[in-house]
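Name: Uu.00g035720.m01.CDS01
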Amino acid sequence: MPSLRVGIVGAGGETGGSIVNGLLEAGDFDVVALVRPASASKPANTALKQRGVEIRPIDLSGSQDAMVDALKDLEVVISAVSAGEQLAQIPLATATKAAGVKRFLPCAFITVIPPGGVQGLRDEKEHVYNHIKQLSLPYTIVDVGWWYQISFPELPSGKIDYAIGFKGQTIAGDGNVPNAITDLRDIGRYVAKIIVDDRTLNKYVFVYNELWKPNDIYSLLEKLSGEKLERKYTSRETFEAQIKDADEKMANGATDFLTHVQKVTAQYLISWGIRGDNTPEYAKYLGYLTSKDLYPDFNFKDYEEYIKEVLDGKAKGVYAELRELQKQMSAAQK
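Structure predicted for Uu.00g035720.m01.CDS01:
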């Protein structure tokens, strides 16, 4: 049986990298990284090429004909674009349809959030989903819960700062709302199963590994590290004030990444930390299939084992650019 030819937009990002790894690990796919023409020769793409990934230029703001030519031999296209590029998927979806691609996975890959005002990023994604449906383009929407890699706070000793995704974490509400979490490394392994599964065609799929309450994560980290953590609880009203502040900054012309992160993070924490949206029960209510029902034998990374990996200094941090930006901002304020 010939390998399935899969194109990935955003193969060099956190989610895209996990998907590349998952497809290569499965061994049943020809993987094509669809990259900006200007970045085709960058070291990250050279490294992908050395692993057997085809590097193929595509300009999402270019002509439709050129995009169709770049996509026409692909059977599946997966988008893992950055948060700020969501609407660039609209011309990509149009070209994907014209190219006769059999399945399109737009850039979902977030927590379960209902559309319509809970979170701005989710609502941008909804514009893309609606466009896909208007095209009658075969699709699968995959959401993945909150990552293990951004689920835990720093320790007083600084021992695990190397792996911290976001410093200065706070606990939303009372910290007792269950939240579905997934190891970033498992996302690609789930995707490798989903894209060859007829049950998931034209469906929403929620993949997750475990359910944890923030208070329980803090207790686990205290037990395994032997350190005592300060628990900072934040109310919905405070998050809403942060969102309002970010909106006012952007209305006055602010375009910096940290202002955007301020708003999006507060909306996320209200959604999964206070509203309780990010659970399999709510996902099923919204019509999702779940990984537990689809793939009950999936061998995922245990969360406690992951935290031990972090404490042993063996984990890999995420969002290196954001961590560096935070460091520079902190230094500038001193």
